[in-house]
Specification:
homodimer; about 350 residues; alpha/beta; 434 Repressor (Amino-terminal Domain); Rossmann fold; 3 domains; 5-stranded mixed sheet; DNA-binding
Chain lengths: ~350, ~350
DNA sequence: GTGAAAGCGCTAACAT
DNA sequence: ATGTTAGCGCTTTCAC
């Protein structure tokens, strides 16, 4: 069926009795091709099993049908709130594939490798080698001015996971503050007022933004809990365990705790168990980071998590759309910003109303 | 510093006062360039910040510097023993990047999508579009004859995660039998004889191979436990819980259990707890699948896991090496097969000698 | 609406 | 050991 010696656009042109150019127009969905001709070409394509050669497209034209995702070495992984590269990739693949785009990942290592140069040089190299149509900068690379400027200089389209407003301006990057605020408000709505926050995130800056969001939510309803029940930095398991025990021992204690990661959540849970404090009857526990094992805790832990995969695929989509649009309509990108919230609640068994409300 | 209008091989040639071809030879580490000339060219490259254009290399030559990893939709993820795509990608990137290769991932969906055609057609399309130098077929795609034959026809180099011997012949694919055998032997060496095996793997075929390996190990030492303490199919949490309780209730009961996944491990642990059977004092628990939360169980769970990332990066490496070799030395690939075992023990707290041995 | 010509940046094959 | 000549398969630009 499929022949071995590559089938080129030339072959299709010949088979359809048209010029290469017409075939090119058809495969690129460009105008100025009569319907009848288009159909003839499409038939020839189907019959010959023609598939355009990616490298050749890049060579000839201006688009490369490649989008490049760049992430920081330490920012991806399976613990402490790191990015779920696997899920992001799957989501990205599913938007890129059908549109004929390919997705490439590149890791940059900020911790000064000598031979490779600094991160922006690494990226510059990748850009000239690959000439991607767009790049997705994963957190917290979007905050690196050196990288941003390389991208700008080259005029490479870039996008990010989410955006937030900072000092009244919209800046790229996840809105961790809003996210934590939403988490707190979820518990507030249930009636909780004495509410704790245990940090565990690998990125102290993002973690601090989350604590701010949590504070805002509590201040808004006039609770002073944020003065008492909050860790002032990301904690490891043992620290989180000790801190939680300290919170839960006195009579006045939180009725709900937000744990930033799987690890801290397990610590909180164990601390509660050690004190015979029942979850969720006496204490609600909300985790900001999902993991498969969380559904097999006793009780199963309720999670509100940032949907990194959705954020990522949306970034890919925007990049592709911008690329396609500018090629034809070139409508001004007024940045409609109908971005989703980008987080999702998985309601399991660890969150309930506070005791006095029942 | 770095100029915007692309710097090409031509620019370097001019700057170094040589021909394009000589520059090409230098960047490809080919022979027949005088040391002095080589240095002049290298200097020019460094000065101009030249980086070869990937697409152009593909167009001109026969190598594409791309390797394509293909996986099945349902075979990757974070539960039930699925492939850790993120870790594989990182490992792969780290071998490909330094050698100038790029890594692409492609998902195939066996569950008959109409528009895309069957898996081998999807792959055929990717192959003609990308012309990768090699492809890594992830489990259990290596068992699909249709896919293998597409690869063969096109003469695309392919490699796999591991290999095992089957009916006396070496076939591609992970050696799950040997792996489970090793797990059982680890416990056997500690003195366990009554040993259970709880399946939970998403792939029943691989799971069955593991159970066989476990059986072999027990038979080898004359234990009959494999007749009693083994699930006959992959189990979900509740089933694993019930089965384990059934095993642990009578007087004659296993002193060790191998759980295939995080989920089943948690089920076993809970079953033991519910029966007040202490782990590891009365029961050892060995898990075949790691997850971050496993180190925060009570007790922390000991894991022996297949190192998919290592398998994957080794496959990439072999592909690249073969590609490079054939370009210069073309030594016959006698398949030295110095492949690693490809699994690793993470010794935590859930495995100990059986009670009677202490 | 369609076609012809001219590259894109590189490497293979062949000179020299 | 080095240079020259052809392309690779596509898109762009510009004719028609």
């Amino acid at each position: 069926m499929t022949q071995s010696g590559s089938i080129t656009i030339e072959d299709v042109a010949k088979a359809a009795g048209v010029s290469r150019q017409t075939v090119s127009r058809v495969i690129n969905f460009q105008p100025n091709v009569r319907q009848s001709v288009r159909e003839k070409v499409e038939a020839a394509i189907a019959e010959l099993g023609y598939v355009p050669n990616q490298a050749a497209r890049r060579m000839g034209g201006s688009r490369s049908y490649q989008i490049l995702a760049i992430f920081e070495k330490d920012a991806v992984g399976r613990s402490d709130g790191r990015l779920p590269l696997d899920q992001m990739m799957l989501a990205g693949l599913r938007v890129c594939g059908p549109r004929g785009y390919h997705l490439l990942f590149e890791e940059v290592d900020a911790s000064g490798q000598k031979s490779l140069g600094d991160p922006s040089e690494q990226i510059a190299r990748a850009l000239t080698s690959l000439k991607p149509d767009g790049v997705v900068l994963c957190p917290s690379l979007e905050e690196d001015p050196g990288i941003r400027s390389v991208l700008d200089q080259r005029g490479v389209a870039s996008d990010y996971l989410g955006q937030r407003s900072e000092f009244g301006r919209l800046v790229p990057g996840l809105d961790d503050g809003f996210f934590a605020e939403a988490a707190a408000e979820h518990l507030l709505a249930l009636g909780h007022r004495q509410m704790g926050f245990v940090s565990g995130h690998h990125d102290p800056v993002r973690s601090a933004r989350r604590r701010d969001g949590y504070r805002r939510a509590l201040i808004k309803v006039g609770s002073r809990a944020h003065g008492h029940f909050i860790s002032d930095a990301p904690l490891a398991f043992d620290e989180a365990f000790d801190l939680t025990r300290a919170w839960l021992t006195p009579t006045i204690r939180p009725t709900a705790i937000i744990a930033e990661t799987e690890e801290t959540a397990r610590a909180v849970l164990r601390a509660a168990q050690s004190l015979k404090i029942s979850v969720p009857d006496d204490l609600s526990l909300l985790v900001l980071d999902d993991a498969p094992g969380l559904s097999h805790c006793e009780p199963a832990l309720t999670v509100l998590h940032q949907d990194y995969a959705a954020h990522f695929s949306q970034a890919c989509e925007r990049l592709i759309t911008a690329n396609t649009k500018s090629a034809s309509a070139m409508t001004d990108n007024k940045n409609t910003d109908a971005r989703e919230d980008g987080f999702a609640l998985i309601d399991r068994e660890s969150v309930a109303a506070p005791p006095r409300n029942r």
